[in-house]
Amino acid sequence: MYYSETVMEHFTRPRNVGVIADADGVGEVGNAVCGDIMKMYLKVDEEIISEVRFETFGCGSAIASSSMATEMIKGKTITQALAVTNQNVVDALGGLPPHKVHCSVLAQEAIKAAIDDYYERRGNRQ
Ligand code: FES
Fold first, then answer.
1. Whole-structure pTM value
2. What is the rounded average pLDDT of the residues 19-30?
């Protein structure tokens, strides 16, 4: 099985791990087949993602994907973050083995879920 150096690096030293207690948006997604779960927390400042953290209870590829995804959306606008696809994450990681591509899908879904939650909360405050 092949894992790129970048995957190994993000797996062994994941960036932005943790919780944001006063997050503006939180998204939790899971994969029913493998049972892995990913949770993403966002702070949003005037449509810019000023802070992002994650907790992933899952495989190494899921952890590396979450770590990379958080790096890719930090400091970006909501629109830019929504445009990040799982393929972008895979490419940034230098590839994932075919049977591990679904792990990167969790990252894309977690970003979207957290942004959905942000919009929902904001709507509720109006
Ligand atoms: Fe399911 Fe990686 S094996 S997320």
1. 0.94
2. 98
**CATH T-level topology, domain 5-119:** Sufe protein. Chain: A (3.90.1010)
Query: What's CA 21's distance to the chain center, in Å?
Result: 17
**Is 103 assigned a catalytic role?**
yes
Distance, CA of 73 to CA of 113 (rounded, Å): 14
Which tokens belong to 100? 């591990």
Ligand 1 atom closest to 100 (CA): 2
* Domain boundaries defined on the chain: 5-119
Q: What is the C-alpha to C-alpha distance for residues 64 and 56, in angstroms, rounded to an integer?
A: 10
96 lines ligand 1 (CB under 6 A): no
Q: Tell me: the pLDDT tens digits for 46-65?
A: 999 999 999 999 999 999 99
